[in-house]
Structure formats: C-alpha cells, structure tokens
UniProtKB/TrEMBL annotation:
<protein>
    <submittedName>
        <fullName>PAP2 superfamily protein</fullName>
    </submittedName>
</protein>
<keyword id="KW-0812">Transmembrane</keyword>
<feature type="domain" description="Phosphatidic acid phosphatase type 2/haloperoxidase">
    <location>
        <begin position="318"/>
        <end position="446"/>
    </location>
</feature>
<keyword id="KW-0472">Membrane</keyword>
<dbReference type="Pfam" id="PF01569">
    <property type="entry name" value="PAP2"/>
</dbReference>
<dbReference type="InterPro" id="IPR000326">
    <property type="entry name" value="PAP2/HPO"/>
</dbReference>
<keyword id="KW-1133">Transmembrane helix</keyword>
<dbReference type="InterPro" id="IPR052559">
    <property type="entry name" value="V-haloperoxidase"/>
</dbReference>
<dbReference type="InterPro" id="IPR036938">
    <property type="entry name" value="PAP2/HPO_sf"/>
</dbReference>
<feature type="transmembrane region" description="Helical">
    <location>
        <begin position="12"/>
        <end position="29"/>
    </location>
</feature>
Length: 461
C-alpha cells in the first residue's frame, strides 16, 4: 500500500468529502475566470480594428483598387488564423484551388486565443502591405495590453500568440507578393491618347492616371477578365441625337437642376480619396474613405446587426473584400481599354467651359463606373449571405462628417451608389448601366464558384 493511502473513520470521511467539495468549487470558479474564458469577446473588436486599417489607407491616399487589395489580404489573414486554430477546413471552401496549394499552413499550438490571433494577424498584414502600415504597431501594442488585462491569455503565453499570428501573416504576405503588385512600377508608364473622346487629366489637380496596369494583378476568383468585359461604350460623337451626345447633355442638364436629396446622395457615395482643394497657391488634400472601404463598413454593420459569431464575421468580410478586389481588377481593365473622356472634360470643351461637377472628377478613365461595378458585386454577395430586404443603417461615413443613411436592402444601396455618379457629374449613363451589369456578372460568378467549392469540400469531409 502506498504510504499516502490510509483508512478513514466516518468523521474523517465527512471532512474529506467536505474538503473535496470546497476544492471542486474552487477549481470550477478558477476555470470560469481562467484565460480565454473570462467573457465572450464581441466581434466589435474585429470591426473596430479593421477600421484602423481603413484609417491608414486614408492617410496613404490609397487608390480604390489598391485599397481593395489591402482589405483582401488583411481579412484573409484573420480568416485563416481562426480556421487553423479551430481546425476548420473553412478556408478550403473560400479560397480557390489555385491558391490553396500555395498555403501549406502548420498547425497552431494548443491553447491559443483565436480572436486575438485573428485580429493581430490582420493588423500584421496591414502593417506590412501598406506604405504607412507601421502606424498599426501602436494598435497592436494596445491589443496585447488589452488581451492580458482582460485575461484572454496569460502574459507567459503572449509570445506564443504573437509568433503564430506573425507566422500566418507571413504566409499571407508570401501569397500577396506573388500577385503582380510588386511589378507595377516596372511596367510602361501610361500616356493619354491623342484624339477626340479619350481621357486626359481633369481639374483642379490634373493628376496622372491612377493604376493603368491594374489588369495585371492576379484576382482571387476570376480566371479570365475578358469573360466579364462589358458592352462597348457609346462611340464618341457630337452629332445631335447620337448616344454619346445625348448622354453628354443629360449629365449637363441633370447636374444643373439637382434637388437637396440628389446632392446628399452624390456626396454620401463620393468615396474619392484624391479630392484636392486650392487656397491661393496652397493645395489641400481632403481625405475620404474609398469605395471598397465604404462596403467593408457596411459588411461590419450587417454582421453586428445580424449577431454573427466570429467564424461567420471573418468569412463574410473576407469574401466581400476578395469580391471587391476582383471587381476592381475587371473594371480597371475596361477603363484603360476604352479610355473614355470624362464628362467634365467633354462639357468644358464642347458645351460650357465654366461648368464643374458636384463631385471632383477622379483621376482615371470614365468607362465603366467603378462604384457601380464594385457596389453591385458587394450587394450580390451580401444579399446571398444575409438575405434580400436586409434593412440597415449605413453609418460608414459618419467619421467623414456625413450623416447616417437607412437602406431597405443591399441592392437598393448599390443602386443608389450607382446613380450617385450621374448626380455627381462624373459618369455617363451607359458607364453606370453597364457597370451594374458587369458587377452582377462578377458577383454571381463568385457565388457560383464558392458554392461549387463548398459542395466539394462537404463531400470530402
């Protein structure tokens, strides 16, 4: 018999039983107050830190296509972190096969807090992928302090958490570094074409064309940009009754008689990170959210209203951001293929040299309307996920001194975003109409591809 074992009398047995009960309650109490179990971490932590990435983009004046790319890889890191810690094959349902093979991720150590790792890895990618990304180091440090203070994990395991978050971010950055972005500066510089009807820089800053070779960036889902090429724009013509001349007059007439609601709509969806105002000889940059940033904000609002858990929140944000990225790649190819003149340039030259649009004309060709394309793609994806007639209040641009706006559905929001380009005087009607069609085709294609991957992954489980 081992030396510590002995026979108890009834009194000893009662004492022992009582001691066991006390110890059990103590253990149970400690377990409820243990690291990672103290309280549920709200998805607002993710939404708020994603906005910190948006703030850096605004600081950098990231172009709309580049901003979408930054969102895609940052949210992908968070999604992969969560999936790996939970030993979930969800990323196989999201990522195309062509990219899955490039991600051979090692298993995480046990006991990691998935919410912390997801957010930290997202910030880590943001830090490394954006020009001013180092601004996020302060947010990362605050996140670590908050995690230890709230007992999401022990101070002793902090290094382990950081190591895995940085590992995931590193793998995602390897993927990003092969998408063609680093080669953009080596490509032939764009020069405006000579001749009537082609794009050329617009006032007041007369900025050079933005991202003329964005077509070379690898999409996530689209395999052939030509498959989503829109119908050609109306041929340039000043002949009365021609499609182009009719649309030219429409922009001039509509913008000359806008009511208060139309002006509000134009400004609400402006999303122009390049706006410049002059005071004497001094140029002042007015920084705004990008179109993609606006729809990422809407995704966060919908996720919180619907009460999504972390798994669902990370998934839908990643899917929307990838959709934005692909939509911009497709749209930007068409912009520089058609290379069409902006309404401001045409109206000033052929109708009224003193006319100015409500919105400042962005520095790239007109056709198709980028906001029409990406808004429609986003609305298609969000409607499929949250359902039609999902009412929400869009507060995405309150930070930029614009009011909240209520919408009965994502499709209605996208339709308003599209027509805002006419009210703003920066797009012709056919660029808006065909942009919406282009966005629908891209959104539906992504959903078909995702559903096929989900079906395949479910069969393999």
């Amino acid at each position: 018999m081992p030396p510590f074992r002995k026979t108890y009398h009834l009194k000893d047995s009662i004492l022992t039983f009582g001691f066991t009960i006390i110890v059990s309650f103590f253990v149970l109490f400690c377990a409820n107050d243990s690291y990672g179990q103290q309280k549920k971490i709200d998805i607002a932590l993710y939404v708020d830190h994603l906005f910190h990435i948006t703030e850096v983009m605004v600081t950098d004046v990231a172009s709309p296509p580049a901003a979408a790319r930054f969102y895609a890889y940052s949210t992908l890191a968070a999604h992969l972190s969560w999936s790996e810690i939970h030993n979930s094959p969800n990323h196989q349902k999201l990522l195309p096969k062509s990219l899955i093979g490039d991600l051979q991720l090692k298993s995480p150590p046990s006991g990691l807090n998935p919410e912390f790792v997801a957010v930290y890895s997202m910030l880590e990618v943001g830090k490394n992928i954006m020009p001013s990304g180092k601004l996020l180091e302060v947010k990362q440090a605050d996140l670590v302090k908050n995690a230890i203070k709230n007992k999401w994990f022990s101070r002793r395991s902090a290094a382990q958490h950081l190591e895995y978050a940085q590992y995931i971010a590193g793998e995602v950055m390897k993927l990003a570094n092969t998408d063609g972005y680093n080669k953009l500066s080596t490509l032939t510089r764009y020069s405006p074409k000579k001749g009537e009807g082609f794009w050329y820089p617009t006032p007041p800053a007369y900025m050079a064309a933005v991202e003329p070779e964005w077509r070379t960036i690898r999409p996530f889902f689209i395999e052939n940009n030509k498959a989503f090429k829109p119908a050609p724009p109306a041929p340039f013509s000043l002949e009365k009754g021609s499609s182009f001349h009719t649309q030219l007059l429409e922009v001039y007439e509509v913008t000359s008689d806008l009511d208060e609601e139309a002006v509000l709509i134009a400004n609400f969806w402006d999303c122009n990170p390049f706006m410049v105002q002059y005071s004497g000889h001094m140029a002042i940059g007015i920084k705004k959210i990008s179109p993609g940033g606006h729809w990422m904000g809407i995704t966060g609002i919908a996720s919180q209203k619907a009460g999504l858990d972390w798994d669902e929140t990370l998934y839908i944000h990643t899917l929307v951001s990838m959709g934005l990225h692909d939509a911009f790649v497709s749209c930007w190819e068409e912009k520089y293929d058609s290379d069409r003149i902006r309404p401001e340039s045409a109206i000033n030259k052929y109708i009224d040299e003193s006319w100015r649009p409500i919105l400042q004309t962005p520095p790239f060709p007109e056709y198709t309307s980028g906001h029409s394309v990406i808004s429609t793609t986003s609305a298609i994806i969000l409607t499929d996920y949250f359902g039609d007639n999902f009412e929400f209040i869009d507060s995405s641009v309150v930070y930029f001194d614009l009011p909240e706006r209520a919408f009965p559905s994502f499709n209605q929001a996208a339709a308003e975003a599209a027509v805002s380009r006419l009210y703003g005087g920066i797009h012709f009607r056919d660029a808006i109409k065909e942009g919406v069609n282009q966005g629908k085709r891209i959104g539906n294609f992504i959903l078909e591809k995702i559903n096929a991957q989900v079906s395949l992954a479910d069969q393999q489980e």
